[in-house]
Amino acid sequence: MLSACNTEAKDKQKNQDSPVGLYGRTEKEKAYDAKVMAESFFNEHEMATLAVLCDLILPATTSAGSATDAEVPAFIAFIVKDIPQHQLPLRGGMMWLDHRSGKLFNEVFLTCSEEQKKQLLDEIAWPNKSTPELEPGINFFNRMRNLVMTGYYTTKMGLDDLGYKGNVPTVWDGVPQDVLNKHGLSYDPEWLAKCVDQEKRGIVAKWDEQGNLIT
Length: 215
Prior knowledge:
The protein is mainly α. The chain folds into two domains: about 5-160, no CATH class; about 170-215, no CATH class. The chain has helices spanning about 5-15, 25-40, 45-55, 70-80, 85-105, 115-125, 135-150, 155-160, 175-180, 190-195.
C-alpha cells in the first residue's frame, strides 16, 4: 500500500519481474504468479549486470529493439524464481565475471569499457575453446545466452523480428470438387453456404445438441 504511489518502487518491481496481465490463467496459477512476483532474488548490482549482458548478447538492430527493450532482464528475473535451479549458476556466474574482469582490467564488469566487456565475453563465448580457467565462465555464458534468446524470441518484438505469423486465419474453400467426386462425397448445400461463404468467414459456426448446424 505504501509503495502504490512510489514510481521508483514500481520501476524497480518492473525490472525485477516479467510483465503481468497474462490471460487464460486459472485461479491456482494466478495465486502462484502472485507469490513468485512478490519475491526478489537479484540485487541491484546483479540486475544492472544482467541488463548489460542481455544487450551485449542481443543488441538492437535496424529492424528490432534490444533484449532490454523486450524486457528480457525481467523475464530472467522471473525465471530464476520460478525455476530455482538457475539461481546459483547465474549468481555465481556474475561473480565469476566480476572476478575475471577484476583480474584483467582491475574493474568489475559493469564499470569496464564496452571494448573490455566484449573482450571478456569473447573469451567465454566459444565452448570448443574451453580451458579449466574459463570453463565456469563458459558454462555461465551458455546459460545466459539460452535464456536471453528464449526470453527475446517469445515476445511480440522477437516474433515480429522473425516474421512469424502465428495462428492467423487463412482462406479455405473446402475440399476440392475432384477429390469429393473421387470419394463419392458432397457438401450439404446449406452447410456450404454458411461455412464456406466468403462473406461469412467471421461467423463462428454453432451446432445444436443433435449435431445440426444452427449458424
